[in-house]
Structures are given as C-alpha cells and as structure tokens.
Design a protein that fits this description.
single chain; alpha+beta; four-stranded antiparallel beta sheet
C-alpha cells in the first residue's frame, strides 16, 4: 500500500510540468491598443458606419424637386395616320410640352429634415455599436488578465505544495505520518491541476472571441494582457450621473429618435397643404395656320382624413419616443449607480484583503509550516493554512477583476476616461 501511494503521488506531481508550460508568453499588449484596433478593423462597426454614410445621401434625394416630364403630341384630323390634316386643317398640330410638379412650400425641406434626423440616428447607432464592441474587448481583456494572474497563483501554491507532499511521503514511509494526510495533499494537488486545465480552456475561448472582435485570424498568436492593477476612481456618483444624458450612447440613440419623430410630425402636418403642377405646351400647325400655346396649372388637394390620421400617428410616435428616452435615461442612471457601488465596495474589499486577510493568512501558514518542519505539527493544519492563502489570493484577484470591470462599464455608460 505504501509503495502504491508513493508512486501515485509521484505520477500526479509530474503532470504539472506540461500544465504550466501553456501559460502565455511574449510582450503584453496594452488595452488601449486593442481598442483602437477593434474600432478600425471590426467589420460590424464598418458595416454600421456604411449604413450611416448611406443615410446621409437620402436628404438630397427627398429635397430635390420631382422629375420634370416632357411630352410630344401629334394631333391628326380626318385620319388616324400620324400628321393627317396637318397641311389642310388648323386643328392638326404637333405639340411639344413640359410639366413640373411643385410641392407646397416647406414640404421638401421638412422631408429633408426627417432624412437628416434619420442619418443622425444611424450615426448614434453606429456609435452605440462601437461602444458595445469596446466594452466587449475590455471585458475579455480583463478576464484574460485575471486568468493569467490566477494561473500564477496556482503555480506558486503548487510549488509550495509539492515539497510538502514529498515530506509527507517521506514521513509516512518512516511510519511518522498518516495515509490520510498524504492522500489529502494529493487531492489538493490534483484539484490545482484541474483548475489549471479549466483556466486554459477558458483562456482559449476568450482568445477566440477577442480575435473575432479584432478581425484577426484565429491562427494568429495569442494576445498577452497586461497585469491587472487597481485603478482608483476619482469622481463622485453625482459627477458620473451628470454625464449620462450628454454622453451615454444608448441615451444618444433615443434622443436622436425623439428629434426624428419631431421632424416627422412637422412634415405630416405640412402634408395637409396642396401641391401644384405647372405645364406648358407649344402646338405647331401646318401651312399658314396660327400656332397654339397652352399653359396649364393644376392643384392636388390632400384628403383631410388621410392627413389627420398621419398627423395623429406621428404625434403618438413622438410621445412614445419621449417616454422611451425617459425610460432609457432612468435605466442608465440606475446602471451607473450600480457600477459605482461595485467600484467603491470592491476597493474596500481589496483593502481588507491587502491589509488584513492576506498578511494574516500568510503569517499563519509560515508559522504552521515552521512547526511542521520541526516535527511538532501534523500535516492537516499546514495544508489548511496553505489553502486559506490560495483562497484569499484568488478572492483578491476576483475582487480586482470586478473592480476594473465595473470601472470599464462606467466608462461606457458615461463616456468619461476613468482608467
């Protein structure tokens, strides 16, 4: 039994060699560099920009007068054949004319205003998408940095655990230790290996998502993030919330929607005015007959019920847009408050770890380890102290990730540079 336990422990410890060799290598890439790359290379952003640029050409189309019409007429007398009677009747003629539709003053301008507001809305939607992609890049990058940091923690603690297993095996072989202690240490070592494997799997998936956002080939080298570090928030909740209305991308989209619907209502009201059509024709007769000249002016009168229904629809749409804007503002203000609370609370939590829990846990482990090495202590308390250090270091990194992620979300919500 002792021999089996020994070789099992030795085999488990050997498996750490390839596990940690998978950690990322190379020079770290700053987050700002990746954000700039995503904004210039991401195809979703490019498509949204093209949609906005296409929308900017609509106003010119709708503000231009309708296409003119040109007419050629042949009026025959005495026979259906073309030009019959042209030389012997003053009724036969060849006519050349043109006509132009003239919308009521202001109609085209208001339609152009609607088109311009639609283009503005397309631009704000492109900005919202750009902000969303940036937010995703930040989240993936910070998560990668967190996993890289926790891999280092796992490696350091495993490096401490391995000689403890060897010492436990040596004592057990001399009849000074218990089988349970050795098996417990082996289990914790294997759990660390499991965590390393799961970390590598998640990191690979994060790399794939990040490369997609950057429009990089999936076979390109993996991205090495910079180490996570604490960023102090220098603004109050009130200062951050004051930036929401002017700089929040989702609020900007709904604000542009209100402006568009307001222009749509004014255009619908103008549709009640009549439109005109002006035409002129020259009719040439044959022989010595006098030529004809014809001027026509026609007016189109919009039906009242149709116009009133269009105005009512536009008015309701405007009110809906205003309510959606108000709801969006409240939602974004609440989200800013939530993220502000997350930032402040995680900062306090990290201070508790740095100033209290981590130093205390490390001191306790050193004391337990010293006593154990002197042969005055059982193995279980030493292992428990080591696991406390591992847990607190992991929890500290999680709090740091939560802090930086909340700060990144605040940047998106307020448009402010906070990191």
């Amino acid at each position: 039994m002792k021999v089996a336990i020994y070789w099992t422990a030795a085999l488990v410890m050997v498996t750490t060699i390839p596990a940690y060799s998978q950690e990322m290598t190379g020079m770290p890439t700053p987050l700002a560099t990746l954000i700039s790359e995503a904004q210039s290379s991401n195809t979703q952003i490019s498509a949204a920009d093209h949609a906005w640029k296409a929308a900017t050409h609509v106003a010119q189309q709708v503000t231009t007068l309708p296409d003119p019409q040109f007419t050629v007429q042949s009026y025959s007398v005495g026979s259906p054949k073309p030009f019959a009677g042209f030389s012997n009747s003053d009724f036969a003629y060849i006519g050349f004319g043109a006509s132009q539709e003239l919308p009521y003053a202001g109609k085209l301008r208001l339609k152009g205003e609607v088109a311009s507001r639609e283009a503005d809305m397309q631009q704000t939607q492109a900005d919202l998408l750009r902000s969303s992609v940036t937010d995703q890049v930040k989240a993936l990058y910070l998560r990668l940095a967190y996993l890289d940091a926790t891999l280092s923690i796992l490696g350091r603690n495993d490096a401490v655990l391995k000689p403890m297993i060897e010492t436990g095996l040596s004592r057990y072989s001399l009849g000074q230790g218990s089988q349970a202690e050795v098996l417990k240490a082996q289990i914790e070592h294997t759990k660390i290996l499991r965590e390393v494997t799961m970390h590598h799997q998640e990191m690979g998936q994060l790399q794939a998502s990040l490369k997609q956002l950057l429009h990089r080939s999936q076979s390109s080298p993996d991205i090495m993030p910079e180490s996570l570090s604490l960023t102090l928030l220098q603004r109050t909740a009130e200062e951050l919330q004051s930036l929401v209305v002017a700089h929040n991308p989702a609020v900007s989209v709904d604000t542009a929607g209100v402006h568009k619907q307001d222009a749509q209502l004014k255009s619908a009201q103008r549709e009640g005015k009549p439109d005109f059509n002006v035409g002129y024709m020259f009719q040439q007769t044959g022989g010595g007959y006098r030529d004809y000249y014809m001027l026509t002016v026609s007016m189109r009168l919009p039906r009242r019920k149709r116009v009133e229904a269009g105005v009512a629809e536009a008015a309701e749409s405007l009110e809906r847009s205003k309510q959606e804007l108000d709801s969006q503002v409240q939602q974004q203000l609440a989200e800013v408050q939530k993220q502000y609370i997350a930032v402040t609370n995680t900062a306090e939590l990290m201070a508790e770890y740095q100033d209290g829990l981590l130093p205390q846990a490390r001191a306790a482990f050193q004391a337990e380890q010293t006593t154990y090495q002197a042969g005055k202590q059982a193995f279980a308390p030493v292992l428990s102290s080591l696991l406390d250090v591992l847990t607190f270091e992991h929890d500290y990194q999680q709090a740091l990730l939560d802090h930086e992620t909340a700060l990144a979300r605040l940047e998106t919500l307020t448009g402010a540079q906070l990191r």
